[in-house]
Amino acid sequence: MHVSANPTPPATKKRGTRRRLLASAALIAPLALSACGGAQPGGATAGGFSAWTLTGSQQDAFEASFEQWNEANPDQGISAEFFANDAYKEKIRTAVGAGNAPTLIFNWSGGTLADYVANGNVVDLTGKVDALEDRAIESIEQAGEVDGAQYAVPNNSTQPVVLYINEKLFDEVGVEPPTTWEETLDAVEAFKAEGIIPFAVAGQSQWPYLMWIQYLTDRIGGPEVFQAIANNEPDAWSHPAVAEALTRIQELVDAGGFGDSYGSVVADANADAALVHTDKAAMLLQGSWVYAGFKADAPEWYEEGNLGFAPFPTVDGGAGDPANIVGNPANFWAVSADASEEEQQAAFDYLNEYTLNEESIDKFIELGLVPSTDDAGEAIAASEDAEFLDYAYGMVQDAPNFQLSWDQALAPDQAQELLTNLSQIFQGTVTPEQFVDNMNATIK
């Protein structure tokens, strides 16, 4: 039975906010794409072009797409390199700044893309990739625009942040998934009493902390709060919703909501999800991409129906719509302005013919990922993962507002200050007031 992606049930129907997930596991076995021929700047081979992207749950889909292109275009082959998330962000920043970027630059749009555009690092794609734009969800595609021109296009799944539930632990402890902040604190107390970490979070990676401040700020103050920040309005961080969100985060930390060792957990290694599927943690606030990792890393646990999911809880008196979501509308390809005209044209052809094409859609769905295309509904319905994929696809379609991850929406220097200060909030070494002052100082 299909249920709305963002239910707000009465207290007597709390169990309805989660889903049991039971399907056969499909193990993800990454393939190796090796470069051949003489290396050029950015990793391109003679006669071809280059692409850098991420390891993880989406890698198989990218590899399949690259291989499809290479088979049809042996004289213009794609040389692909894959990096862990955190390592990639540092490497691509250096490469772009040095004029040594790959032809296809994987990015999150937002502030980083705007920075690339301002510095002339990427090509205006307007009118060059119309075939791809016809396939993509328009609202997602628009995230790749800067000043009305298309500088990046979606290349993979749409990625709302979901609250994952360990159904086994909830049943054992006799707790219902929380729908309000008060119920969240009650659940924390119940799990802590049983020696179970209430929420896994990959603190060493820092960026997973963003999911907490984003959802809480939106639930409390609505999307206008961060929009003012993104617009660099003076003292925008001083909105009361920001300080209240930070206060609630520290309240959760002090209550033992994340356990004692969350600062050493790394997201790139899926260590946060591992705490859930090894029954050490009850919940995880993470992106939709983590679903595929659960299937691959814990097939027996998954097949037993132990994985559920739910919306982020509401905050009493909050102004934000409970259907609002946060995350990444998608990831994007931009084309390097430092690539040769031949490389750029080959990249345009690849984007038009192979990015988010029918084969890619099928591959994303096979991996338990939600394609960022308009016509994925029928394929999702036929998938063994239809329950989760339909839920996540519905979250995106039904959301009044889909807020981009703050570290990507802001300029890179502001984003780094945000991650540093937010980490200190979780560590308890700065107060919400100090955080607000520190971040207001970054507004230009």
TrEMBL record:
<dbReference type="InterPro" id="IPR006059">
    <property type="entry name" value="SBP"/>
</dbReference>
<keyword id="KW-0732">Signal</keyword>
<dbReference type="Pfam" id="PF01547">
    <property type="entry name" value="SBP_bac_1"/>
</dbReference>
<dbReference type="InterPro" id="IPR006311">
    <property type="entry name" value="TAT_signal"/>
</dbReference>
<feature type="signal peptide">
    <location>
        <begin position="1"/>
        <end position="34"/>
    </location>
</feature>
<dbReference type="InterPro" id="IPR050490">
    <property type="entry name" value="Bact_solute-bd_prot1"/>
</dbReference>
<protein>
    <submittedName>
        <fullName>Sugar ABC transporter substrate-binding protein</fullName>
    </submittedName>
</protein>
